[in-house]
Amino acid sequence: MTNAADVVRLDPSDPAFSADRHTTYRRLRETAPVARTVVNGQDSWLLTGYAEVEKALKSAANVVQPRPGEFPAHIGAGPAAEFYRFSLPNVDAPAHTRLRKLAAPAFQPRSVKRMRAWVEEIILGGLDELAERDDVVDFVREYAMKIPALIACRLLHAPPQDATTVLERMPGLNAVLSQGDITPEQLAEADATAQFYFDYIGDIVDTMRGKLDDDDPVGALLLAEADGERLSRTELVVTLVGFFVASYHTTMVAMTNAVYALARHQDQFRRLAEDPSLAGAAWEENLRFEAPVHFVWRYAGAGTELSGTPIREGEHLLLGLAAANRDPARFARPDTFDVGRTDNRHLAFTAGGHFCLGAPLSRLEGRSCCASCRGGCPRSSCVPTSRRARPT
User: Fold this and answer.
1) Interatomic CA distance for residues 224 and 216, integer angstroms
2) What pTM was estimated for this model as a whole?
3) Cis peptide preceding 378, ω within 30 of 0
């Protein structure tokens, strides 16, 4: 067992930690880049250095399941657990390899290129609406929540009028997707939310069956499910719910973070406004500077060693993506927001076999937003009322 005196505890309920997490991350990187902590009652290793986090992500020996076929007890046994068990980020090979291969065509460069026109139309239409306003704007509610929701609905052939009402329930799943403590009330909410999405996406599947070609993301998965041997109905629905989560939640947080960063760094905003060719670099810098997801997890494989510390097989690893992205050993001036940064191999999309499948779509959305920053965005009247959703 871990000596209580040696355990690092991160308390999201602590206002000081929530207001400035990076001070804590910096202290840990400098003193204990591989430290003991406790997650959901289990001993864990907390990694905050870039080299350690990248190594853990890229090691094929490290896995996301405690043991083959085993899942964390805190997810329960209801609909939320079913969603968790079949979600790409939560399964290992060979199931992960099979599911990822089937889902990958949805986000290949060719597929994302075909999305570009309508994605940009949605993004620019939202910005035009903001530009017409002459009052204070709640950017999170009126743009960051709205635009990714519209894109997610278009991607999955859901009615656009459902965007706000359907996707506002998404945070209900956070409790089972996170590595933090979970209450019975949160688990009950997660179960209700998962069942809602199973029913909603299931209806879309039944409606669109036989109507889409294999060059459509949903159509390709429907054909795989029709095959019967490659994809089950449960896997199909959960994968599409996962598309909803990926297309909406993290992009919403990233867009909010971008406005917050540009509003606080007016010199960088002016630089971007004067040179829209920096849009791609600016989005990558936004993801590095304030990663939308702060932590992911792995279970250590045999022979794992990090910063000279031997890790026993099966021990839980909590990987600090946000902390790693501010590591001075990897990034020059890591606490400086620089929209022109070129050496920017951040870990916001993770790395290795579980690298974010939707990264190309995120980059398309982000570049489109950043390229539109010309004098009116971020508006001084925009109020980012929530910098990020529930910590993950």
Assistant:
1) 12
2) 0.87
3) yes
